[in-house]
Specification:
This protein starts with 7 loop residues before the first strand and ends in a 5-residue tail after the last helix. Among the domains are: about 140 residues, Response regulator (Rossmann fold); about 100 residues, Serine Threonine Protein Phosphatase 5, Tetratricopeptide repeat (Alpha Horseshoe), CATH 1.25.40.10. Strand 3, helix 3 and strand 4 form a beta-alpha-beta unit. Helix content is about 70%, strand content about 5%. By secondary structure, it is mainly alpha-helical. The longest helix is centred in the C-terminal third of the chain and has 27 residues.
Length: about 550
């Protein structure tokens, strides 16, 4: 057994008898630095204040009842909100015999899980195994935590050579890091090499992810379909296959894939949410209502409840023609999520939908104006909800408000919404004139950002200038003047501050885009020559 004297442990269990037993077992293992949490809520509060080497978590946090959040949901929250890092050992303890729940917990990748009853020797063995693996990966995990992904790739290569037992795990992590660095060709080569030596499901899944990132959706879907035929319990493959169908414009096919996944593993809240959203896109309000009703119920005891789930449930209920039930959901939203900064905006959107459905246009307009004001005030609503708000404004003849909301989405570079997606809100509503107006406004904003970037460059803020230029490109992606300025800014930063691989890749992409749009552009040759000169300056091959 490795040295455990300095190991810090968070023990999460609502049962005082079980807590005492586990604490005694840990003491016998030489572990004395133990903190206790009796629920998911108290655990999240403690993890917000300090980190732990290891978490021992009971699966049934409701203590045998249906109340409260279970261990699977807690782990989902901890991973999604990054409250635990790569170095944290998470061991799930369960006596759960229901296969679907065990499957849900396993797909969230706890370090290990132990089936009750168990002995102190079993616990010791699992802890020892987890500590050994953590020690092997510690140097790499530390580099990842510092954002040094390229150094982490090198560390993975060293780990493969030094730790034969974990060689395949290091190879997997190395491929994932290549994806994170947007080195999709290298990632694909790595996954293909792994598959040539050993047909493992996660490598096929990883290869499909690289194809998806390259927007080769049909190829990724074909690979995932074959993978699921061979490994029908690989849950993440269903999620990616559904995204492939959605990106290919077939939400019905995406919905069918997610329904199959939920039937196998019904306790993953984020998948249920994805099913609900996909069903709404496909027009299947019955499935959407069932999915969002489960999301709202399962998230009830989470510290990270999202009021947007209530909005989507209201939308589905109205689609089903059930305004009375929709009203009950709105009342629950206002009562149970009081204090959440987004509740007021979500309640206004929900109420507007209900008023519009019941024919009260004046009340609907009033609620929509309240929601738009919340957007002005900086409400942290998702981009998809904002676009939904814009669509509702359009259907209620609030054209100016709709345009304002769409502009707010486009001015958020992290929204993940392309200008084509944003403009489709107006096009589908039969208002191409509003789309043209938004396009003109964005072009003016982009030109203004070019002036800001020039000022930053003059002041020596080269990174700030590039960030501003990227914002301008986001607002006006087909604008050649913006792309040329962005390419110049990136090269200026590289020449002044040193080689940056990701930035250089972006610069190369900008030059390629200019070449595709206008092969005879007057400044293309000069920009490409400067790019090649920078590569030679820093000894970069290729």
């Amino acid at each position: 057994m490795p040295d455990t004297a300095n190991l810090s442990v968070l023990l999460i269990d609502p049962n005082p008898v079980m807590r005492a037993s586990l604490q005694s077992m840990l003491n016998l293992s030489g572990i004395s630095r133990i903190d206790i949490a009796v629920s998911s809520g108290t655990a999240i509060k403690q993890l917000g204040k300090k980190s732990y080497d290891m978490i021992l978590c009971e699966y049934d946090l409701g203590n045998g009842s249906d109340d409260g959040q279970d261990g699977q949901q807690l782990l989902e929250d901890l991973r999604h909100h990054q409250l635990i890092g790569l170095l944290t050992i998470f061991i799930m303890i369960t006596s759960e015999g229901v296969y679907s729940k065990v499957l849900s917990a396993a797909e969230l990748s706890p370090t290990d899980y132990i089936l009750k009853p168990f002995t102190v020797d079993v616990l010791n063995a699992r802890i020892a195994r987890a500590l050994e693996r953590r020690a092997a990966f510690r140097p790499t995990y530390l580099l990842i935590g510092q954002g040094k992904l390229r150094d982490a790739v090198i560390s993975c290569t060293q780990g493969e050579a030094e730790h034969a037992r974990y060689a395949l795990d290091f190879a997997r992590l190395r491929a994932e890091l290549h994806v994170g660095l947007n080195e999709l060709a290298q990632a694909g080569t790595q996954y293909a090499a792994i598959l040539a030596a050993r047909p493992v499901g996660w490598a096929s899944l990883g290869l499909a992810r690289t194809l998806f990132a390259e927007q080769r959706f049909a190829e990724a879907a074909a690979l995932l379909t074959d993978l699921l035929a061979a490994s029908p319990k690989l849950m993440a493959a269903y999620d990616l296959l559904a995204r492939c169908h959605a990106m290919s414009g077939t939400p019905g096919a995406a919905q069918r894939v997610l329904e199959e996944a939920v039937a196998l593993s019904p306790h993953m809240v984020r998948r249920l949410r994805q099913l609900g959203e996909t069903a709404l896109d496909a027009g299947d309000v019955a499935v959407a209502e069932r999915a969002f009703r489960q999301v709202v119920a399962r998230a009830k005891y989470s510290e990270f409840r999202d009021p947007e789930d209530h909005v989507n449930l209201v939308r589905a209920l109205i689609g089903k023609g059930e305004p009375l039930r929709a009203g009950g959901v709105i009342r629950d939203l206002e009562k149970s999520l009081r204090g959440n900064p987004n509740t007021e905006a979500c309640a206004a959107i929900s109420s507007a939908l209900l008023h519009a459905a019941t024919g009260n246009a004046a009340a609907a307009a009033g609620e929509l104006n309240s929601a738009v004001q919340a957007v002005r005030d900086g409400a942290a609503l998702s981009a998809s909800l904002k676009l939904g708000l814009a669509r509702t404004c359009l259907s209620n003849q609030l054209d100016q408000q709709a345009s304002e909301v769409v502009l707010a989405v486009m001015n958020d570079i992290d929204s993940g919404v392309s200008i084509q997606q944003a403009m489709s809100v107006f096009v589908k509503a039969g208002r191409p004139d509003l789309a043209d107006g938004i396009g003109a406004t964005l072009k003016v904003q982009a030109q203004g950002l070019l002036d800001v970037a020039a000022d930053k460059t003059g002041a020596g803020d080269f990174k700030g200038a590039v960030q501003t230029l990227l914002e301008a490109r986001h607002l006006s992606p087909g604008n050649l003047a913006v792309m040329v300025a962005a390419g110049r800014g990136m090269l200026r930063q590289i020449n002044e501050l040193g080689w940056d691989h990701l930035l250089a890749e972006q610069c190369g992409g900008v030059i390629d885009t200019i070449r595709k749009l206008d092969p005879a552009h007057a400044e293309l040759g000069q920009l490409n020559d400067a790019y090649q000169l920078a590569k030679r300056k820093y000894g970069i091959a290729g």
